[in-house]
Specification:
This protein has helices at residues 43-46, 58-71, 92-114, 118-123, 130-144, 148-158, 167-183, 190-199, 206-214, 221-263, and strands at residues 6-11, 17-20, 83-84. The chain has 306 residues and is mostly helical. The chain has 2 domains: 6-146, no CATH class; 159-240. A hairpin with a 5-residue loop joins strand 1 and strand 2 (17-20). Helix 3 (92-114) packs parallel to helix 5 (130-144). It comes from Arabis alpina (Alpine rock-cress). This is Retrotransposon Copia-like N-terminal domain-containing protein.
Length: 306
């Protein structure tokens, strides 16, 4: 049997190691144990593509990107340096192994750069390897995320609930701010989270807020949100019923007014119709003594017709 070929390969600053190069029948399909064939993205992995990174929420984007590269079997390239061979090594299989690594690294770097917005793509387009690109992003934006802890706390402290917006919409906002603080590595006990949520209730819920404060039994965040949802639903139902009652009362009053105007002369419908007020059509002259003179008859006699 022929002897299995070997080659000296150096990974980064590590000392050279001897690797066994498997014999392949065709050079186009040479695959080594250290550098397996690169997998192309499937329909499933394409659906896992993270949003393009624009400089915000780096930790979240980094985790999504790492998972996406893992589905492609490319995550190792963000940790490994490019392997090097001695200058006098001309073994075909060893050179093919290095070429396979460089091809996989090229794909990995391309996938990372494709998930950057155009402005950041231009900034990091000169990275030589995936590891260099990954480390550059981590160094720049993880340090900037250090101040995001204070920003997350400030957003929670400054958030105010109002009566003009739906209660549960604002409760979800506060809950998301608490999760954001937790994602920044700051631990908040659940008792504090519950107290913070109660304290931020809007002025219209002052009575309910005082009721919750007086409860001695421990309450979880999940239980509090459930109580708030029930209270909000009950108030919405009461407001809807009250509005319906006001509308019904207004319609009833309008109907009664119209009915009264229609039947107010029911006993004598013609009463008042054609009635003419007294008119002063005759003129009276006063006598010298002061008494008014009698009016002269100006009509026609029924007997003589004169």
């Amino acid at each position: 049997s022929s002897e299995t070929p070997t080659a000296q390969v150096q990974f980064g600053n590590q000392p050279p190691v001897t690797v066994t190069i498997p014999v392949a029948t065709q050079s186009e399909t040479v695959t080594t144990t250290q550098f397996p064939t690169v997998q192309m993205p499937s329909a499933t992995s394409v659906g896992l593509l993270p949003d393009k990174f624009d400089g915000r929420s780096f930790k979240m984007w980094q985790k999504k990107m790492h998972f996406y590269l893992t589905t492609l079997n490319l995550e190792k390239y963000i940790r490994e340096d490019c392997p090097t061979l001695p200058a006098d090594n001309t073994d075909f299989h060893a050179l093919a192994s290095v070429d396979a690594w460089r091809h996989g690294d090229f794909l990995c770097k391309g996938y990372i750069q494709s998930r950057l917005v155009d402005q950041l793509f231009n900034v990091f387009s000169n990275a030589a390897t995936s590891k260099e690109l990954w480390d550059s992003l981590d160094k720049k934006y993880r340090s900037e995320d250090a101040g995001s802890q204070k920003n997350a706390v400030a957003k929670l402290e400054n958030y105010k609930m109002v009566d003009s917006r739906p209660l549960m919409e604002q409760v979800d906002k506060v809950h998301n701010l608490l999760h954001e603080i937790h994602a920044e590595g700051m631990r908040l006990c659940e008792t504090y989270q519950v107290a913070c949520m109660i304290e931020k209730l809007p002025p219209g819920f002052t009575d309910f807020k005082n009721y919750l404060k007086l409860k001695r039994k421990w309450m979880s965040m999940e239980n509090l949100i459930m109580r708030l949802r029930i209270e909000s639903t009950n108030r919405m139902n009461l407001e809807a019923a009250s509005a319906q009652n006001r509308e019904n009362n207004a319609n009833l009053a309008e109907h009664q007014t119209a009915k009264k105007g229609k039947w107010q002369n029911k006993g004598n419908p013609d009463k008042g119709k054609g009635k003419v007020g007294p008119q002063n059509t005759q003129k009276f002259k006063k006598k010298a003594g002061g008494e008014p003179s009698k009016p002269r008859f100006s009509g026609t006699c029924n007997y003589c017709h004169k």
